[in-house]
Amino acid sequence: MQGAVFSGKRTVTLQSFDDPTPGPGEVIVKIKASGMCGSDLHFYRADGGAPEMAKKLGLGGDGELKINGHEPCGEVVARGPGVAEHHAPTGQRVSIHHYAGCETCPDCKSGWSQLCKVGPMEVLGVTGHGAHAEYMKAPTFTLVPLPDEISFDVGAALSCGTTTAYGALKRMNMRGGHTLTVFGQGPVGLSGVALGKAMGMEVIALDVSENRLDLARTCGADHTINVAEADAIEEVNKLTGGKGAHYALEASANEQARVASIRSTRVWGTVAFVGEGGQVTVDVSPDLLRRQLTLIGSWTFSSGIQGECTRFVADNGVNVAALITDDWPLADIDAAYKKFDKQQMGKGIIRP
User: Where are the beta strands (DSSP E) in 140-287?
Assistant: First the structure.
């Protein structure tokens, strides 16, 4: 089969791989939709491709190019030894929690395989083969059943970007009727807008791209601020009677946006950072201590939270499909990432 790899310097190449065969405790999933995630751009842009960036981020790996794509969604087509039919029925619709650890440590048992320190820990689509291909091999414990009312496209979004936003919003313990700012309207930020609105928030979306702010309005934003044209802190204060927002989700990884997300949040407010990479400098006393601010770092989600988010989207009719703007066949994947790299579009889907 053909699989796409981030081979370095903003290049995606198709290479030939053997069709995967399931080992003990594994299944084969026929991929129906493979999402493009903003964090993919770190691996795509690296001079040495995905293996170089994986090493830089401390994710390990063997240094070999793997099939990329860490937002898998499809149907179970084969089971390996020891996998009971009722655990993974042929034809079952699934998304995949894209981390695989030792299975036995406390983190793995609680569904947080990405925190496994016993190892080896794989990030499927980065240090292990992923979903930009026709088939994908995965441990059975990574499967998350997909309700019939959720499309494969939305299931792919739920496999990383959308559930990343959900996990961060849940950690902020938000109360309905309050104000949420969302900094950065890439796929994670747009998901934060749609989910925050479904959770009863008044949502303020901020970005430098008018195209993405249009998408934010489609996803349910009550207010939008183009921070290329206006000061984020001043505009949020205007919209909140000078008090600032109750909650902030920072999904851009931009230093200025991170500072603004903190300084535009009110006393006793809560801020969650989810954007990968970068740095930020804050003045600790006035920015945090003397405003009793809670600052959270939130990295992806557990397999249980992925299932919870899937159910929340289905039960509440959250319009995740609104953030999906583009789709391509696998053969056009290089063009797909060249467009995604401009950071003007919403969610992209690859169809193997």
Answer: 143-145, 179-183, 202-207, 223-226, 245-250, 265-273
* Beta bridge pairs of residue 16: 2
Category of 69 on φ-ψ map: left (φ > 0), alpha (ψ -120 to 50) or beta: left
Asked if residue 120 has a cis previous peptide bond (ω within 30° of 0), the answer is yes
CA atoms of 56 and 75, how far apart (whole Å):
33
Report CA 148 to chain centroid distance, whole Å: 22
Residue with tokens 């949040």: 265
Would you place residue 119 in the very low, low, confident or very high pLDDT band (cuts 50, 70, 90)? confident
Give CA–CA dist 298/296, Å, rounded.
6
Average pLDDT of 198-215?
Answer: 97
Alpha carbons 28 and 25: distance in angstroms, whole number: 11
Mean predicted confidence (pLDDT) in 211-223: 97
Burial class (CB in 10 A: 0-12, 13-18, 19+), 47: exposed
What's the CA gap between 6 and 123, in Å, rounded? 15
pLDDT of 17 higher than 90: yes
Task: Quick: pLDDT tens for 276-285.
Answer: 889 999 999 9
Query: Closest by alpha carbon to 350, among 28, 130, 60, 53?
Result: 130
CA 274/CA 298 separation, integer angstroms? 5
Residue 337 phi, psi dihedral angles, 5° rounding: -75, -30
E-state strands within the chain: 2-6, 12-16, 26-36, 72-79, 93-96, 99-100, 122-123, 135-139, 143-145, 179-183, 202-207, 223-226, 245-250, 265-273, 294-297, 324-329, 347-351
Distance of CA 184 to CAs 236, 241, 246, 258, Å? 14, 23, 17, 10
SS3 state at 207:
strand
Taken in order 184, 190, 196, 200, is the CA torsion positive or negative? positive
3-state secondary structure of 235: helix
Burial 181-206, CB ≥16 within 10 A → b, else e: bbbbbbbbbbbbbbbbbbbebbbbbb
CB 1 within 8 A of CB 134: yes
